[in-house]
Amino acid sequence: MKDKLTLMIPGPTPVPETVLRAMGRHPIGHRSGAFQASVARTTAQLKWLHQTSNDVLVITGSGTAAMEAGIINTLSRGDRVLCGDNGKFGERWVNLCQAYGLAVETIKAAWGQPLDPSAFQAVLEADTEKRIRAVILTHSETSTGVINDLEAIAGHVRAHGRALTLVDCVTSLGATTVPVDAWGLDVVASGSQKGYMIPPGLSFVSMSARAWEAHGRSDLPKFYLDLGPYRKSAARNSNPFTPAVNLYFALETALEMMQAEGLEAIFARHARHRAAAQAGMKALGVNLFSAEGCGSPAITAVDPGCDAEALRQLVKNKYDILLAGGQDHLKGRIFRIGHLGFVCDRDVLTAVAAIEGALLEMGVACVEAGAGVAAAARALNA
Ligand SMILES: *Cc1c(COP(=O)(O)O)cnc(C)c1O
């Protein structure tokens, strides 16, 4: 049905009506007092979301721009870095580091499994000469629906004493707690089309005092993404270049909504939706792709044991819900339910119902009509 398609993919995520209305106006001058006031307010809101007193800078670009900014602003040619890789976005970090000629060592886990914090601990403890400059990983691995134990890994990095922690929190920020100061996260990258509930186009990067020290030494080439000028102009509530002005209107409005809901309530909602999606799938007799106990609060990856692309098409064409497919070797094998950002109980319940209907239509043997919805409803009420 026209205009009815509901996004349940891990970005872009649904945008509240209030936010769309905030964007739907003429842009204002980006050097005007009115815009600077907006920058001042969003800066404070972003620090609240990141639970930090560090700088949180706004870049016009997608989430990967913030990731790239993190690398090129804190590292130097030939630096040794340790990358966690257990999915498509872990791989992106590795590719990005290699593009800048860093000496990358990886700690891998199979897709669907979480990274093992003790593997990081072992490599970091063995580095007695303190040559590892950064530990780089993805908090919520969107491609597999796995959340990594960032708190434990960051703890091992702090014990090392020299390396920085650089994290992709693109699908964890706004879905689960990312206490940047408490966990000592030096660089945190995120993007607007995920937990922020606004359209794609802005990315965010937080920089600790240690990250800024490293910026002073960093010799990797940079211009548009050199965070030095961003920091300087942020002190005057401004930007070095023309920012996506209307997306700032959206950002301020969305963050106001998030502040009204409260961090704890937002995280609890995402945890409940993860529980409902997982319970619904299990009751339908299909397998979760992520290992037990490490499902992401933003996304549930499902291995239905049948043609996942056919199922996804059926859910889209018949029920007007867009699920995400599998990436790379998982294409056709898994589908992913995004429950990140502006998502309510109804969305999750309907998604489970639609998947149930599609599985029944496809004649997948194990499915008992109503079982998925019943289990999801119970999880939502728990
Ligand atoms: C969406 C996403 C990104 C950013 O991708 P862009 O397309 O550059 O916005 C990075 N990491 C993860 C884990 C993501 O889910």
UniProtKB/TrEMBL annotation:
Superkingdom, natural source: Bacteria
Domain Aminotransferase class V span(s) in chain numbering: 30-327
Gene3D superfamilies given in the database record: Aspartate Aminotransferase, domain 1, Type I PLP-dependent aspartate aminotransferase-like (Major domain)
Family matches, as InterPro entries: Aminotrans_V_dom (IPR000192), Aminotrans_V_PyrdxlP_BS (IPR020578), PyrdxlP-dep_Trfase (IPR015424), PyrdxlP-dep_Trfase_major (IPR015421), PyrdxlP-dep_Trfase_small (IPR015422), SP_NH2Trfase/AEP_transaminase (IPR024169)
GO molecular function: alanine-glyoxylate transaminase activity; L-serine-pyruvate transaminase activity
GO biological process, one term: glycine biosynthetic process, by transamination of glyoxylate
PROSITE patterns, A to Z: AA_TRANSFER_CLASS_5
Record: residues binding substrate: 336
N6-(pyridoxal phosphate)lysine modifications at: 194
Required co-factors: pyridoxal 5'-phosphate
Transmembrane segments: none
One Pfam family in the UniProt entry: Aminotran_5
Family to which the UniProt record says this protein belongs: Belongs to the class-V pyridoxal-phosphate-dependent aminotransferase family.
Assembly mode: Heterodimer of a large and a small subunit.
Protein name: Tritium exchange subunit
Organism: Aphanocapsa feldmannii 277cV
